[in-house]
Inverse folding.
């Protein structure tokens, strides 16, 4: 575990492995009603494939996401919890789930693995103690986190992240077409806020999560490129953005910001053209 001081309190990022996953998911079930904002980040083994296509299609980005998520395995999931005012859950606001992953048996992109190793991830532990994705999917299904529009999911440039979550929940390959993907996504996650999409409608904020967090004065807790720390920073950034850019208004306009993903679907962030797509296939994995 990683402990840190925050606003005069000692808080914890709790690591979850196969031996304590059921106990920790039970703890999450206890707090979700009081802390219904869930910030999420994943770590995964990069991008290894591109869609086989002779010509560019409007759903090229989704096809890229699908072919990679179908082939690869999630490595880490960070979930952080806050109330509607942005106050972190007491004691332990963040859980970092570590999944079974083998460098000798599973596919990966070497540059992504190098980044994760340099960030402190132990692949020996993931191989020996990692969580079985099928068991986690079952626990997530009955956790109170999904299938409930009262739970607000907060993320940053998160197409791939939600792809891996849907894979955990459904245990099958992602839908063949993007429309069906969004329908399935909305079933399990009825209230999504993608910060990168939100900032695309605001002036003055560009770049990745760390830059936006710095611009908004948010402090990182824990190691960058680990899912727990990234999810906590995502939560802090969301509420800082809400307070700085939406204060004095009626709040965040769901009709404008809810259930959109940056770079996917039919919104203005979906860039057209094969050259752009080819140059940005790593867009989600390197936000």
């Amino acid at each position: 575990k990683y402990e840190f001081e925050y606003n005069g309190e000692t808080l914890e990022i709790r690591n979850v492995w196969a031996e304590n996953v059921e106990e920790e998911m039970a703890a999450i079930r206890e707090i979700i009603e009081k802390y219904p904002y869930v910030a999420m980040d994943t770590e995964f083994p990069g991008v290894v494939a591109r869609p086989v296509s002779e010509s560019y299609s409007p759903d090229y980005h989704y096809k890229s996401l699908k072919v990679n998520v179908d082939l690869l395995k999630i490595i880490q999931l960070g979930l952080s919890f806050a109330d509607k005012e942005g106050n972190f859950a007491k004691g332990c606001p963040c859980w970092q789930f570590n999944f079974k992953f083998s460098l000798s048996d599973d596919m990966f992109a070497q540059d992504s693995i190098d980044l994760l190793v340099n960030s402190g991830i132990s692949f020996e532990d993931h191989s020996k103690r990692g969580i079985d994705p099928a068991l986690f999917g079952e626990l997530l299904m009955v956790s109170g986190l999904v299938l409930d529009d009262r739970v607000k999911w907060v993320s940053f440039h998160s197409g791939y992240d939600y792809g891996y979550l849907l894979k955990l929940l459904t245990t099958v390959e992602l839908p063949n077409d993007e429309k069906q993907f969004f329908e399935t996504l909305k079933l399990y996650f009825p209230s999504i806020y993608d910060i990168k999409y939100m900032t695309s409608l605001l002036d003055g904020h560009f770049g990745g999560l760390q830059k936006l967090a710095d611009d908004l004065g948010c402090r990182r807790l824990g190691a960058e490129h680990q899912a727990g720390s990234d999810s906590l920073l995502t939560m802090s950034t969301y509420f800082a953005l809400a307070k700085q850019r939406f204060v004095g208004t009626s709040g965040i306009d769901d009709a404008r910001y809810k259930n959109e993903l940056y770079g996917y679907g039919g919104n203005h962030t979906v860039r057209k053209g094969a050259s752009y797509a080819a140059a940005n296939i790593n867009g989600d994995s390197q936000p």
Remarks:
- Residues 273-287 have pLDDT under 50 and may be disordered.
- The first strand starts at residue 2 and ends at 6.
- The chain has twelve helices and seven strands.
